[in-house]
Structure formats: C-alpha cells, structure tokens
C-alpha cells in the first residue's frame, strides 16, 4: 500500500482535526470508533484503538503458551476440553 499523505490538515480551536476519508478507510475507522495516538521522536502515529489493544495483548502474551507447556494444537485442544469439563461440573 502506498503512503497516504494529507498535507496541511487544519487544527481547530479545540485541537480537533477532521480525518480525511482515505485515512479513515485505511485505519478501518467508523463514526464513534476510538484511535490511539503514540508520540515518539517528534512524530505522532495514529492507529485504530482496537488494533492497538490486540497488538499489546499479543505482545504481553508472547511466550506464555510455551511456559504453560502448550506446544501443539493438540495441547491447546486438550486444555480447552479440560477447562470445559471443569466448567460443566
């Protein structure tokens, strides 16, 4: 995907800007959705908050399956079955 460049978006008196349609579509944003803004090294990166939350969850959970002894899909299926049995009891 080629970069989408918006030149001279205007900041209103309350600090608001309007996101152009191309940017909203690229971020898969709809009316009422939330965005996450990350400021680093003089730049702001904006992302869909739901996507950002999933990235943070993935990052935080990285390596946990191995720690729990889950190495294959069969291991995961077995754990799910065990949990379902406990819940049904």
What is the number of independent domains? 1
Helical fraction equals 40-55%
Mean pLDDT: 88
Q: Can you count the helices?
A: 4
Structural class: alpha+beta
How are helices and strands ordered from N to C? HEEHHH
Largest sheet: 2 strands, antiparallel
From the alpha carbons, calculate the radius of gyration and give it in angstroms: 21 Å
Find the count of extended strands (DSSP E, 2+ residues): 2
The backbone outline, from C-alpha atoms, is elongated
Indicate the proportion of strand residues.
Answer: 5-15%
Which regions have little confidence, pLDDT < 50, spanning 5+ residues?
Answer: none
Between the first and last Cα atoms, what is the distance in angstroms?
51 Å
Widest sheet, order of strands: 1-2
Offer a few descriptive terms.
89 residues, elongated, 2 strands, 4 helices, alpha+beta, two-stranded antiparallel ribbon, single chain
């Amino acid at each position: 995907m080629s970069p989408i460049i918006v030149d001279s978006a205007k900041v209103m008196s309350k600090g608001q800007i309007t996101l152009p349609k191309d940017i909203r579509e690229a971020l898969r944003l709809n009316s009422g959705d939330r965005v996450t803004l990350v400021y680093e090294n003089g730049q702001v990166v904006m992302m869909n908050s739901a996507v950002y939350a999933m990235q943070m969850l993935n990052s935080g959970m990285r390596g946990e399956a191995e720690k729990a002894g889950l190495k294959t899909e069969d291991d995961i299926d077995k754990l799910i079955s065990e949990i379902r049995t406990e819940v049904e009891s």
